[in-house]
Amino acid sequence: MSQPLKIRPETDAASQDTQTTPLWTHGVDVPPLMPITATVRADVCVVGAGIAGLSVAYQLLRSGASVVVLDGRGVGAGETVRTSAHLSNVLDTRYAQLESVHGVERTTLVAASHARAIDEIETIATHEGIACEFQRVDGYLFAAPEDDPASLDDERAAAVRAGLDTDWVERAPLSPFDTRRCLRFRGQAVFHPARYLAGLARAVADNGGQLLAGHATGFERTNVQVATGHTVEATHVVVATNTPVNDRVTMHTKQAAYRTYVIAAPVPAGSIPPALYWDTEDPFHYVRLARHDDARDLLIVGGEDHHTGQSNPGRAPFERLEAWAHARFSGLGAVMHQWSGQIMASIDGLAYIGRNPGDDPNVFIATGDTGNGLTSGTITGLLLADLIQGRENPWADAYDPARIRPRAAWTFAKEGLHVAAGYARWLAPAKSQAHAELAPRCGAVFQRGLRKVAVYRDETGRLHERSAVCPHLGGVVVWNDVEKSWDCPCHGSRFDGQGCVLNGPATGGLEPV
Fold first, then answer.
1. Average pLDDT over all residues of the chain
2. Which long-range contacts link 500-505 to residues 24+ away (Cβ below 8 Å)?
3. Which of 20, 143, 289, 459 could bridge 147 with an S-S bond, Cβ 3.0-4.6 Å?
4. Minimal CA–CA distance to 69: which of 115, 27, 36?
5. What would the pLDDT profile of 418-438 be if each residue is shown by its tens digit?
6. This model's pTM is above 0.85
7. Does 48 have pLDDT greater than 90?
8. Which helix (H) or strand (E) holds 306?
């Protein structure tokens, strides 16, 4: 019998139910990771078994390289299955903005790379026989109610210059919801991300790749130390962990972590045409369909993004998404699934894919996908396979992690203020009341002399005390009551109630008190 794809480390029993479970994880079998029992050697060590890491491994194996994929939690245990699974070259950062920062030539290359990524996913799914429900659809971008549809004129002009197939339509095909005049983009797609990932992992294994269980705790040039005490020795290393866990400072000043939320609710089958739908609200909403049964489809609605750790929203994001959907889609049933994910947003709107700045030239990273992680992950496979094997790639300059774009300076400064606000929590007094006020499965930061202590009460009533200081760069964590986690507002590290690390850049948990 199929089991849900595991999304948490087996050693973290308390966290198995602390996070809302994505729709995609139900009933998907993934290849197991094998334990490391000795030093392992390979041409390439890929850290991270999400779509970016597995795409790199797949492309390299087909070129004859030996590859080890290393992950501490399992195939698909990260952010790949926490998306709404849009496959699009209509990027979250609008083309008019990208063009103003990067110029027409680079923006055109970027648009082509995401279109190529969609094609590559379709090709791999067909070639490897992956039944991942891949389907080509149109995409529709419409103005927020308070905006004039003419506000999209500049976006259409920039998108056309970048080579996208787009035109005006009088409204998106949504009844009775009238989007007004909007842009249609052809050549978009949807798929089932967990099924694709499981098939890609099997293809990696079938082509000779080693899928190994191991939490990377240290990097010495191209050697990766594992929590088991063993080492993976490689000629090249690719760190594909959403945010680079091998980088202490540099890359974390060039991107910011955001939480984003998704709900899935049934609608009558056939009542909404399959397509991708986006609005221009801030934060914007993104919508698609998935098949549920003969009588019902699932409407998948996402949005309500905010900086990680800089808000304790309770259930409000899910409630606002549900209210937004009910106001626009008739026949919407009760929410059946809800989940959230972590987006790493770069300061200039494009992912960072290439050599890690200031590191050994054989160390590569993929991060900062800015809401387009599925196509960016596939681009990672194509681009890094070329760089590792000494081939030129036309996208290398656009995605170079060492790039500096002067026109992104304002965003850099603005995100720096958010980080500073996170560190300001050191100056704010924490709770001083007794722990007795904590309800089960709740946490709070308490002041104990000069120390800040993260206290969590589990479902049995037992208290767990950890340092509230993030081991990455010393931010003070905050309690996330939706996902029952400790979140760092500075660079996005996340920990479960008992302090075990869930998201980097931290590589270890909160220190015990």
1. 89
2. 500/9, 500/11, 500/12, 500/15, 502/8, 502/15, 503/242, 503/243, 503/257, 503/342, 504/241, 504/242, 504/243, 504/244, 504/245, 504/472, 505/243, 505/244, 505/245, 505/247, 505/248, 505/252, 505/472
3. 143
4. 36
5. 566 666 665 566 665 656 678
6. yes
7. yes
8. strand 296-307
